[in-house]
Design a protein that fits this description.
mainly alpha, 0% strand
Length: 364
């Protein structure tokens, strides 16, 4: 058989593929066997400690690149190359977004990936997260932001100190919008003195992010996969940074309080009392996120889809689900008897819904 004839049978391509696979397999180092000692060590680790450290690490991964980007943007304002050579709000939004994605990818398998006290509280309210774990998670999240702020100050210290000296020479307060304290935590601008306006801005931004997070975490959402959720959540945050960072937003209790404590160490307690704003940055995120998740739970959640996808069960098991379908007219008595006989209520729930017009022809 000529080479040209073999091309039509894909033999050459198949042979090349097999050759490459054999070549690669010869050079792959087999993974080391897992020792009993390692298994014993991992089993001995306290679960609560692993979860707390994962939450702290996740918040660190999210906050550290974000405030480092802010530092790059602020301290280079006097650079002869111009501030845009080193950063912008666009860059800062991406820094936070990718940091959030990395935090979820790295730490969520261990702790669930809350990284926000408001999200932890909402999980306890709506998803059965244990209330006794809530304080541990919140303290860990604040600690992660605190460490991120300290490390950023250490790494940027020469530049921040030079910038501080320049502001002192001009008589500009260090705790001000655009001052070194605003690298770490949100400080409103000189024209932003209306606390009601700042409250509503923060409430809207946090609610926006909260709804996107809750939708991204909904296992019945057909537009979200486990691999895309970290980036969707990160982009929701970036979206609000791009739109509203210029008028002062915080978006996360742990992110603001942890870094604000670092700012207080370096620039004094004024960071908490400046224009009576800090309570908005620290606290508004919680009621706003509760509102957002309640909005989703009451108006947009479809628990039948969750049950059908295998991500939840009726509190009374299959009998309770069948009873619900019967009482709501979604399933005829004959179908109910058949399902009871076959013991397959959850597997066939979509058929009953479609028979009664609850689903369209595509199962949507």
């Amino acid at each position: 058989m000529s080479n040209m004839e073999r091309l039509h049978t894909n033999d050459l391509e198949l042979g090349a593929t097999e050759a490459v696979q054999r070549h690669i397999s010869r050079h792959v180092v087999p993974p080391a066997r897992v020792s009993q000692r390692k298994l014993d060590f991992e089993h001995s680790r306290p679960r609560w400690l692993r979860e707390c450290m994962a939450e702290a690490t996740g918040v660190f991964f999210y906050v550290f690149p974000g405030i480092a980007s802010v530092a790059s943007f602020i301290v280079n304002q006097a650079s002869p190359l111009g501030v845009t050579a080193y950063g912008s709000l666009f860059q800062t939004g991406w820094a936070f977004a990718i940091g959030i994605a990395f935090a979820i990818i790295t730490c969520a398998p261990t702790s669930g990936g809350h990284f926000n006290p408001a999200i932890t509280i909402c999980f306890a309210i709506w998803q059965g997260f244990p209330w006794n774990k809530v304080p541990y998670y919140i303290v860990s999240q604040i600690f992660g932001a605190f460490v991120a702020g300290l490390l950023m100050m250490g790494m940027y210290w020469p530049e921040i100190q030079a910038y501080t000296d320049a502001l002192n020479a001009k008589g500009v307060p260090l705790v001000s919008n655009g001052g070194p304290a605003s690298i770490l935590c949100t400080i409103p601008g000189a024209s932003q003195t209306n606390l009601g306006y700042l409250f509503m801005t923060e409430f809207f931004v946090d609610s926006f992010i909260g709804i996107v997070i809750w939708a991204a975490l909904d296992p019945a959402n057909p537009f979200i996969s486990a691999t895309s959720a970290p980036f969707v959540i990160g982009l929701a945050y970036a979206n609000m940074v791009w739109g509203f960072a210029g008028i002062s937003i915080s978006t996360n209790l742990a992110r603001d309080l942890g870094t604000r404590m670092v700012a207080a160490i370096f620039y004094g307690p004024t960071v908490f009392s400046f224009d009576n704003y800090s309570w908005i940055a620290i606290l508004v995120n919680v009621p706003a996120t509760i509102f957002a998740t309640a909005y989703y739970e009451f108006l947009m959640r479809d628990s039948i889809q969750r049950i059908g996808a295998g991500h939840a069960v009726h509190e009374d098991g299959e009998d309770g689900l069948i009873r619900h379908f019967t009482n709501t007219g979604l399933m005829e008595r004959g179908t109910t008897n058949m399902l009871q006989a076959n013991g397959s209520g959850t597997n066939n729930y979509t058929a009953g819904k479609r028979d009664h017009g609850y689903l369209d022809a595509n199962g949507a």
